[in-house]
Design a protein that fits this description.
about 230 residues, alpha/beta, Rossmann fold, two-stranded parallel sheet, binds adenosine-5'-triphosphate, binds magnesium ion
C-alpha cells in the first residue's frame, strides 16, 4: 500500500480542562521523531509557552497555536470578548501544512471533549467532522470511572474515531488509590474501549528527561496506531 503523503494526526482530548493533555502530549512528542505539535485553540496563556519550553519545535507560532485568545474562557466566549470569531478554516489550513511537513502531528484539544470550540461545535464535533483519531485523558481520582463512561458515550454519539483512554496521575498516588479509583478492567468493560496507557505522576514537568522517562514507563507510544511509532 502506498503511504499517504500526509502525516497522521492524533487528537489528545480529555474529560475536562486541567486533565493533563499538555503534559501527556509533550511526553509523547519527546518519544517520536518527525513530529509536529498543535494547540488548536488557546484561551489564556500556558500551553503554547510550555511546549516552546520543553520541546525543540521548528514550527512558527501560528503552526503551534493557530487560534489564540487572551481570556481564559470557553473559546467562543473568549473570542467574543475580542470581537472576533473562531476561524476553523485557518486552523485546518495550518494543520494541513503541519501534516505535509511532519510524519505525525499531535493536536491538543481545548478543555474536555464536550467543550465548545465555536457556537455550533464542541471538540467532539470537530474530531468527528475532521475524522481525527482521538484519545481521552482521564485524571485518576474518585469519579474517574463515571467520567470515562460519560465521555466515551459522547464520543460514540457524535462519531469520534476514539482510540482509547489514557489514565493520568496528576498527583502521587498509592497503589490502592490507583486500583480503587481507576480499575482498568472495569473501565474497559464499561466503556468498550482500551486503556492505552497509565501515565505516572511526573516530579518535574518542565524537565524533558523526566517527561520522556514517564512516557517510556507508560509506553505512551501505544497511543499512536502501529506504524506511526517512530522513536526519537
Ligand atoms: N502526570 C502528571 N504529573 C505531574 N503533574 C501533572 C501531571 N498531569 C498533570 N499535571 C499537573 O496538572 C496541570 C494541568 O495539566 P495540563 O496543563 O497538562 O492539563 P490540560 O488538560 O492540558 O489543561 P488545559 O485544558 O488547560 O489545556 C499541570 O500544569 C501539572 O501541574
Ligand atoms: Mg493544555
Amino acid at each position: 500500500m502506498t503511504p499517504s503523503p500526509l502525516g497522521r494526526c492524533l487528537l489528545i482530548s480529555a474529560s475536562d480542562t486541567d486533565a493533563g493533555k499538555t503534559v501527556i502530549t509533550a511526553a509523547l512528542a519527546l518519544l517520536l521523531s518527525q513530529v509536529g505539535v498543535m494547540k488548536l485553540i488557546q484561551a489564556g496563556t500556558g500551553d503554547r509557552e510550555y511546549y516552546q519550553q520543553v520541546l525543540s519545535l521548528q514550527q512558527t507560532p501560528a503552526e503551534l497555536n493557530p487560534l489564540a485568545f487572551a481570556a481564559p474562557l470557553a473559546p467562543p466566549l473568549a473570542a467574543q470578548r475580542e470581537g472576533r470569531r473562531i476561524d476553523l478554516a485557518c486552523a485546518w489550513q495550518h494543520l494541513t501544512q503541519l501534516r505535509q511537513r511532519y510524519a505525525q502531528v499531535l493536536v491538543e484539544g481545548a478543555g474536555g471533549l464536550g467543550a465548545p470550540v465555536t457556537w455550533e461545535w464542541t471538540v467532539a464535533d470537530l474530531a468527528a467532522q475532521w475524522q481525527l483519531p482521538t484519545v481521552l485523558v482521564i485524571p485518576v481520582r474518585l469519579g474517574a470511572i463515571g467520567q470515562a463512561v460519560a465521555h466515551v458515550a459522547l464520543a460514540r454519539q457524535v462519531g469520534v474515531p476514539l482510540r482509547g483512554l489514557v489514565l493520568n496521575e496528576r498527583e502521587p498516588l498509592t497503589p490502592e488509590q490507583r486500583r480503587d479509583w481507576a480499575p482498568v478492567g472495569l473501565m474497559q468493560q464499561l466503556t468498550g474501549v482500551p486503556v492505552l496507557a497509565q501515565f505516572p505522576y511526573v516530579e518535574d514537568i518542565t524537565d524533558p528527561a523526566c517527561l520522556r522517562q514517564a512516557g517510556l514507563q507508560a509506553e505512551l507510544t501505544n497511543l499512536t496506531p502501529a506504524g506511526w511509532q517512530n522513536p526519537a
